Amino acid sequence: MNPGIDLQQSFIDALVELGLSTGVAKVLWIPLPMILMLIGATVGVLVTTWLERKISAAAQQRIGPEFAGPLGLLIPVADGLKLLFKEDIIPAKSDALLFSLGPAIVVIPVFLSYLVVPFGQNLQVTDLGIGVFLWIALSSIARSGC
């Protein structure tokens, strides 16, 4: 069986050639797969939102998200920025901490569900085993919270 390219060792070797020590290069490798998974999940959500708007516009025979950036690709980014800068209104008789943490409580299980996908040495998906059931459980928590 061909083991393929050893991404971790290639990354460490490239950083060592740039002048970093091996220990620092190994420390820099540790968060890289997690960051790549979070970026992949975020881009996936952006693309899914864009496709949903394009398909809905076609089904309803109306103009879709075509006027913000090339082919309307900046619409999901604009939606995210709009949500970040919206005024937070917390009801007077509510628990302010719980009210503010609500959105995070819904989003965290979605990102956690990507952590159970077992990646091998070469970032290839390996045997899932029981991880599928954990993924279903985490994703159902996220859906029930909405």
Describe how the helices and strands are arranged.
Elements: H1 7-17, H2 22-29, H3 32-59, H4 75-85, H5 96-113, H6 131-145
Strand percent estimate = under 5%
Question: What is the mean pLDDT?
Answer: 76
Described by the principal axes of the CA atoms, the overall outline is: extended
List SSEs in N-to-C order: HHHHHH
What distance lies between the first and last C-alpha atoms, to the nearest angstrom? 45 Å
Query: Given the helix and strand composition, which structural class is it?
Result: mainly alpha
Overview features:
mainly alpha
Written account of the structure:
This protein has helices at residues 7-17, 22-29, 32-59, 75-85, 96-113, 131-145. The chain has 146 residues and is mostly helical. The chain folds into three domains: 1-30, no CATH class; 33-86; 90-146, no CATH class. α1 (7-17) packs across α2 (22-29) and α5 runs antiparallel to α6. The longest helix has 28 residues, at 32-59. The chain is extended, with a radius of gyration of 21 Å. The termini are far apart.
Question: Would you kindly provide a brief summary of this structure?
Answer:
This protein has 146 residues and is mainly alpha-helical. Helices cover 62% and strands 0% of the residues.
